[in-house]
User: Fold these one by one.
Assistant:
Number 1:
Amino acid sequence: MIPELGHFSLILSLFVALVLGVLGSAGGQTGRREWVALVRPATQALWLLTAFGYGCLTYAFYSNDFSVVYVVQHSNSQLPAIYRIAGVWGGHEGSLLLWHFMLTTWMLAVSLFSRQLPDTMVARVLGVLSLVAVGFLVFMLFTSNPFLRLADVPADGRDLNPLLQDPGLVFHPPMLYMGYVGLAIPFAFAIAALLNGRLDAAWARWSRPWATTAWIFLTLGIALGSWWAYYELGWGGWWFWDPVENASFLPWLVSAALIHSLAVTEKRGLFRNWTIVLAITAFSLSLLGTFLVRSGVLTSVHAFATDPRRGVFILVFLSVVVGGSLTLFAMRAGKVRSTGSFGLVSRETFLLLNNVLLTTAAASVLLGTLYPLIVDSLNLGKLSVGPPYFNAVFVPIMVPVLLFMVVGSFARWKSDGVMDLARKLGASALVSVALGCSLPLLAGSWSALAALGLSLALWIVLSSLQQIYRQLRGTANWRATPWSFWGMHLAHIGIAVSVVGITMVKSYETEKDVRMGLDDTVAVGGYTFRLTGIREADGPNYRADIGDVQLSRNGQTLRMLHPEKRTYFSSAMPMTEAAIDTGLTRDVYVSLGEQLEAGEHPAWAVRVYHKPFVSWIWGGGLLMALGGGLAALDRRYRNKRAHSTKGATVGGAVA
Amino acid sequence: MKLWLALLLALQCTLAGFAAHANEAAPLAEDPVVEKRMVAISEELRCLVCQNESLAGSRADLALDLKREIRNLIKAGKSDAEIMDFMVSRYGDFVRYRPPVNPVTWLLWFGPFLLLAGAVYVLVRMIRNSQRTSADARTLNADQRAKAQSLLQDPDKLP
Amino acid sequence: MKKAVIPLVLFLVLAIFLAIGLTRDPRVVPSPLIGKDAPQFSAPILASPEKSFTAGEMRGKVWLLNVWASWCTACLQEHPVLVEYAKRKSVPLIGLAYKDKPADSIKWLQRKGDPYDFTVVDQDGRIGIDFGVYGVPETFLIDQAGKIRFKQIGPVTEEALEKHILPLIRELQK
């Protein structure tokens, strides 16, 4: 019964979304008051229907309703409760429903937090978003229905993939999807502006917090995904340039360019066409990511079970949305072109340079990800593009980005001088290079990569501190400093922190792969590990061998670590649960391999790692997200509500 | 008495000696030098079973076999290039994680940098152009100047 | 020409490639050995391990080498097709038991039927590596000069037989 209700709510949603999409867009175009007026209530109704449908699927999962095909494929009666709830998005159909639910949630937010925008604009924006929702609903109802039922109800389900039975599943996909879907908002704003023919500072000011918030979710989602892979997969890797990882990284790069481009459009009215193209591209990359993951065009550990029919549908959908918006852009770009100029050495130039660099970096990652497909399509053979390519191409493009980030945040708008900038930044540059090149020697061996990373990171931090100091000294009331100022510096410092983590780990991580019997020890990075015992234990749906490993340093015992090797009842493949001691300056990582010998003198394959500063990679991501949060919550985005309500009362009184 | 003590002490020392030996875990690899080279080579190769892992990280059966094969080739004195050829001649270019540089991959390897150079060039030109046009917009050309002069000299012509 | 059309053009090019990509299978790794000499090998025969078979013995004949294993589930799919083919076979069909315990292989053939002229044993997978085997089952068509002419990746289906393998055999035997 409940699954049928859920199915029905999706069908109803389709009709509501169609009405909202058509009438909203038409209302925005013509200004007809009745149509514009129904946009907000219709959005709220759409959200309620979707939430109900999503709730039905969750209920089916939680209550072990194995008459639903999707539940059978991804759940099991012995699955712990939390994974019965999070498992809803563990497969293709459910994750699509989550996508759609997030889209309607963002639409709800737009409908609630848009009092300061003209109603026709809101109608256009929600109309466009609703048409996107129509696409997803049609996709679900015709090719990927999560509510399909089985006539023969099996006794139990096939279980959720053991790799997914982890807290990471609870947080990573929802955060990531919030980011992907969130980029639809600036996209819709861009379309509305193109249709309107008007693109001004007010438009940029409205779009900015939405773009920033989407970027924040993407940052958190990607950081969580990387961290999850690190502790889950058992060999300490945290980024593999896997096609699906790239699919999330591309919108992140482009939306980072977008939020900076919006800053210029808001402040100086420039870069308008750039901003629109970036807004369209960011969401297009989100949709492209969806296509890559679900169509079977590329192989990936993340890919969902594939079906060419679904691939065709998404490709058509992608072509309509992206092709349509880019056609609109080609036709209307002239109307919204920027006027005005800026000097060759100015803040605008550095921002534009970085936008170009970020976009080129994204283009290279996209090229590398799709090249095997392109070469195969042209019958030129089968090629493989892996991490060696991406590392070789991506890093050289990103180094200038970091340099210009520092210089750009110091440069004045419109025009500045090279000598002026050199004066302001020269000292911090020298100190950063001096420290950055000498600090690696403390780690034992010098590394060019570490020197480069540390120098850049130090310069970013020093220049931010310089600016903060100037700001605090220069203003009487430092509390009046806009939050966007703090946000910018916090986010930039976050990048510096991540750069330190990445370069230090890559330069100085060490590992050992050993055979351990009871009471054997192995040392790595100054830490000693002793295997004191191996015991068996049972989990809710698995059997585990747990190792007891004593961690010590300089003769002092620090703690016990318990790496596990689990065999889930539902799957033959054994899974490693690594034991990690996380610290501010290093992670110490133990992973249990196969049992090499049983009986009197049991022996196990054990891998131990010392990873300096690895937690800084994700700590930096957290700082970036916090910085973005401060920037998005800046007062000037929230104040406007007061002005518009004032206007309404005046009008009301007169009427 | 002293003899017993001495024997006991000797026994303890030998036992301690044994214990010290049993304590340090032996590396899983037989030969760390060979292992290091093997890992470096296999990090540049793709695991064909999982297809999105490097051979180094993969625990698949075929991966373990191929890694064993690489160790044998290293011990037989083959160079890195020869080992790479061995793999490519059996599995094709697909098995290389780092795409080769040949006419098919020129776009891949040089594309990004060409794109960057091109974009920066266009950028600089655009900035210079926009400066010139807005400067032009602010200054009058000869015709406009003549018209302004005549308007100023003859108040009747002013609107 | 308006610059604003560039993003649209780039997207259309991309969409075309993606569309073509939908018709391809990214997991398939084509063999670089097609047209080249089949690797020389020598292996014990499953039924009588004291005897061995050398690939060179098949010179002058067109033959099929089918790589299989008792632990391979996809092999169950192709086995009936091979058994059918064995009844009217035009060329010798030799099996390569890949990374399998001989006792298990023998039992499997007894249970499922034996379409092969004979099977040779490749317990450590060394011969498989030389042939570029990356999954089981795989089938190779080798000509009179000892060159590999065709590789079937995955189970041999009726379709594969009719459309690719048999026509090629007929051509080679002319």
Number 2:
Amino acid sequence: MARKSADDKRKRPNDPPILILTSLAGGAKHGHALAKDIAGFAGVALGPGALYGAITRLEERGLIEPLESDDRRRPYRITTTGSAYLAESVSEMQRLADEGARRLAIANKASVSRRVPGIAGSLS
Amino acid sequence: MSTDGMSNDNRSTSHAMLRWYPARWRSRYGDEFAVMIEDDLGGRAPTIRYRLSVVRCGLIERLRGAGLVGNSVSPSEQVRSGALTVLCAFALFFISVVAFAKISEHWDQSIQGGSRHVPAVSFNLLASLACVCALALVAAIAVLFPAFVRFLRAGGWHQIKRRVEWAVISTAVTVAIVLVLAMWAGHLTYYQRNVGFGWYQFVFMICAIAFAIAIAAWTAAAVATTRRLNIGKSQLKMAAVLAILVAVCMPVMTVAASVWWGSMATIAPWFLAGTPAGSSSSPLATNLLVDLILMMVASVVGVIGLLRVSGTWRELKSS
């Protein structure tokens, strides 16, 4: 079986790095605000460990950067490289979603035509 | 409880959780991470699941920081971490091999009938590979010695002083106990030394524990020192090859010890049970079982180090 690269693994829609980049694409946020935003749009509850593990990796790869802050809550923003990475990931996921939808439509059509003989012509 | 009290509780909880993370990570993210935990908990006590999640992520971060997982550090650091993992595994393996040598002492004299070919071959294989590993360790020390001298000349001694002192003290204690035991053993019969459980056996156990502590202390000192050395690429490659050799030898030695046990269980089970020759005895010796489990654990850790070294080898060559 072909081994998945680290990047392939990262490009799943519910992976913390993608969720964080998506959240930051809407504006700079600090850790707690990020977790709340992600829970809101994706329904994924990221604990502080998982969130900061992903933040560490993203910062190392230059996909996000910290902003100056006077209090202990340090906000982060997405970088140009991060935006490009997110755009590429989103289009990849979009292609996958389109392919899935296309195949599901074919499968549904086949399943309906099996159940109702003679309907195949009218569906096409 | 007052809001202030809850907030103080959360602060102490977040600081306690932070301790699972490596110091370097804490100095960069510690403050904001702690405040996120405080915001997250909002005065509530963390659940066990919450705590475990932070502990798991903290340990992963420690492994990453040590170069054992991920690509956060350079290929040479990853290879160095893999080689040091093999060194730690070998320290554990060395303790179990010494215990095996004690358990199997005079095994060949206990065989009355049957062929001693299989236990002899497996025992000799184990002994030979243990020598190969010891030589590999000496060779690795020789390879890294110039870098160690440079490190000392650059004033690095104070960075490792405490660990080396601990190692020297634990070794001195072990040697003192061994000398006492040796003098005491001269006044005892074989039966008093080897059968039952008395004061001699108690001191012997203390000696074994002191020995294990001394090995652990030297290993910790070696790891701390090697992490700080400025090692050239070719020296690192040589050390990595030696680590691979040791990591390969350990599972083979574990198999050899298992074969020796199996063959002795068939030919001379009384030796394993410590009963008179020729008697019917159970070959299930607890001390040997524990020893083999230690060997297996060490072998697995060694293979993890081996995989880290071999997985980064190509990147090291091209870097």
